[in-house]
Write a structure and sequence with these properties.
Length: 209
């Protein structure tokens, strides 16, 4: 399946990375998918399109993001939300009249799937522990890149692995965010899990041994 960009920004922007990601998700055919770090919702929309192809209406997508830059969130890395393409800037400012990095804009992008989605605005360090992980069978971990945040997010998702699910982590080996790799390596070692490093060290796929 082709990974579409929907005129927005995404971390899976390099040619082929989105398709690689969708192939990985397709292998597992998850029914309840959790994305930590939604940003403009591009991956969310692609995942919903894929899961609808596989399961028709019988799937759920849960997406969590800060959805705002604030003093409270200043320790987290938020990608630059401005467009270098002036047409995109004009499209969102004057035609859509939306900030693409807002829960409202992401809801709009996903409105075709309104009965399948659950978007949550909040910090994963506080919100994740309140989410029922019992039925979640796939996690795309792409939120905060700080060591403590990644460690928190992985620990909160341990149940997914215990139930034979998958956690796919993005940005495993980023030079400017070494905390991601450190947190993943520690988590895998402590819990004695299987970890496959994929796509030139971009993704770490964690599953039961
Ligand atoms: C790299 S982007 C996600 C890209 C998205 N997964 C995609 O494929 O296009 C990281 C996102 O994580 C969010 N984020 C950063 N720290 C967070 C935290 N502690 N809790 C929730 N979201 C967080 C940012 O707001 C940002 O939108």
């Amino acid at each position: 399946m082709k990974y579409k960009k929907y005129f927005r920004k995404t971390s899976l922007k390099q040619k082929g990375d989105g398709e690689f990601f969708l192939k990985e998700v397709k292998k597992k055919k998850p029914k309840i998918f959790l994305e930590i770090g939604v940003f403009h919702g591009v991956t969310a929309r692609n995942v919903c399109e894929l899961l609808a192809q596989i399961h028709n209406d019988d799937f759920k997508y849960i997406g969590l993001d800060l959805f705002e830059e604030s003093d409270e969130n200043k320790s987290e890395i938020i990608p630059n939300t401005n467009f270098s393409n002036p047409f995109k800037q004009i499209y969102f400012q004057y035609i859509k009249r939306q900030n693409p990095y807002s829960i409202e804009a992401v809801k709009d992008l996903l409105k075709k799937f309104e009965n399948n989605i659950h978007l949550i605005k909040g910090n994963s360090n506080f919100v994740l522990k309140k989410i029922d992980m019992n039925k979640v069978d796939y996690v795309f971990l792409d939120g905060g890149h700080d060591y403590k945040t990644v460690k928190n997010d992985l620990n909160c998702c341990s149940e997914v692995i215990n139930n034979n699910g998958t956690i796919l982590c993005d940005d495993y080996n980023l030079s400017y965010a070494p905390g991601v790799k450190k947190a993943i390596d520690e988590f895998v070692k402590q819990k004695n899990l299987k970890c496959e490093i994929l796509l030139n060290s971009r993704f770490a796929k964690i599953e039961k041994n």
